[in-house]
Amino acid sequence: MSNALMAMCAMLVVGAILRFSIVLLMFTSGLAYLWVSKQDLGLIVDQTLNTMFGLYVMLAVPMFILAGNVMNAATISERIWSAADAFVGRMRGGMGHVTVLMNLVMSSMSGSAVSDAAGPGLVSVRMMQKVGNYPGGLAAAIAAAAACLGPIIPPSIPMVIYALISGASLGALFLAGIVPGLLMAVSLMLLIAWIARKRKLPFGTPIALRQIPAVLARAALPMTLPVLLLGGIWSGIFTPTESAAVAALWVIILGVVVYRNMGLKTLVATFAVSTRQSAVVMMLIVSSFIVNYAITAEGVSANLAVFIKSLDLSAIGFLLLVNLLFLVLGTVLDGAVMLLVFVPVLLPTAKALGIDLVQFGVVVILNFMIAMITPPYGLILYVLSSLTGVRMRDINREIWQFCVPLTVVMLLLIIFPSLTLWMPRMFGYTG
Prior knowledge:
Layout: H1 3-17, H2 22-36, H3 41-53, H4 60-73, H5 76-88, H6 94-110, H7 113-130, H8 136-147, H9 157-166, H10 170-176, H11 178-199, H12 212-218, H13 220-235, H14 240-258, H15 264-297, H16 300-310, H17 315-329, H18 335-352, H19 357-371, H20 379-388, H21 392-415, H22 418-426
Helix pairs in contact: 1-2, 2-15, 3-15, 4-7, 4-14, 4-15, 5-6, 5-12, 6-7, 6-8, 6-11, 7-8, 7-20, 8-20, 8-21, 9-18, 9-19, 10-22, 11-21, 13-14, 15-18, 16-18, 17-19, 18-19, 19-21
């Protein structure tokens, strides 16, 4: 290991101990490598920025972030909650089921687990605590697990980033997430049903049949967005990247023109928040490019490929090993770091073993979602704790059981690739 690479690793450790933000951690580590290796810092950063901002697919990220924030500000989350409650709220533990169903719908609009946790997740936790008398830790754990649907159900910001670093088809990735997302929702609802019976959670309040049409009518227009997005992508009217702008425009029209609950002041504030969040994501990607440059220049990816090849693993063996490693790393590293730093290193080996990059992408993104709800550093857990006031130790006590069904779904995707590739192939994808 060279001195420059040792300096980068040392900075990663020091930054993690000092609790640097992810962006600052990546930037300082990459710059430490460039400085010790005596490379031109300005030239490398300039080339990195030019590379990233020349990528058309990156336009989807700020648009999806804007769409998610507008939906939260325009009370779309509450409307979808009421519609989901009309279907499954009357069951034992019904509010937990409503949370999963609402996130399933909202996931097809936002593409971000953190946005779903901060928007629908906040609504869900409050309803479960105030109306259903759920323990705070359990309510937050259900909302956190349900938020994992966001990056799997299309559209998805992590899929956009993965398509960027892997060259995989973004349209195929979006299609490949549908079946896994549905499996995740079903597995979570089965677990909630078991918990509800074991802990005698209350039944939800049935909605009178005469009220159901009015409740569904309030959510009818937001529910058209998934059909609009996926129909437009599949029919070729717009690209997956352009679908992000369509989503943002549609929810703005709903909030400003149709529902009229977003004035100019609220709209400007929403744009400002979205701009800050987009800047953080873009800075994270730029900093990851510098770290990836260091890893490539040091031959880490080539050496890792040689080592894995020496193990003589099958494709399934490789996927099991990689995902076991990611599950362990996910307890101490953020999913974004693993996606941007470790996945590019593993892509050449995955290709050499004949693993479809679309399947690989869906599996590892699901793994990273599990990382985001795994203590002690699960980002979604911190978001919900800060927004709801539920103590982290209460959430940590409950969240482990929700990691189990998601891990089972991930194993099914590894063993049965057709679960992810069936939909893309039906629409003409050949990988």
